[in-house]
Design brief:
Shape: globular
Structural class: alpha+beta
Strand content: 15-25%
Helix content: 25-40%
Order of helices and strands: EEHEHE
Radius of gyration: 12 Å
Length: 86
């Protein structure tokens, strides 16, 4: 369901839409990141690397996504590395 996060091995899978052809919303992305945050706390993860999630083909705006990431993880002692092409 949109707004969930599934940990498979060392990969967090953020579920932000019902079908691959759908577009995520900032609300479903926020909910999925909040679920990811719970898993990070549970497994005591200290470092995460991720792309500019939702900002490629899904057309979410990076400035808004970055603010969501910062607000979700503000309480965590977590290093987040954002990877992107130049």
């Amino acid at each position: 369901a949109p707004g969930t996060c599934i940990l498979v091995g060392r990969v967090f899978n953020l579920i932000t839409k019902m079908r691959s052809s759908d577009k995520p919303t900032y609300e479903t992305l926020t909910a999925a990141l909040q679920e990811m945050q719970k898993l990070i706390v549970f497994y005591q993860i200290q470092q995460v690397a991720m792309p500019k999630i939702g900002c490629g083909l899904d057309h979410l705006q990076w400035d808004q996504v970055r603010m969501i990431i910062q607000s979700v993880f503000v309480q965590n002692d977590l290093e987040i590395l954002i990877c992107h092409k130049i």
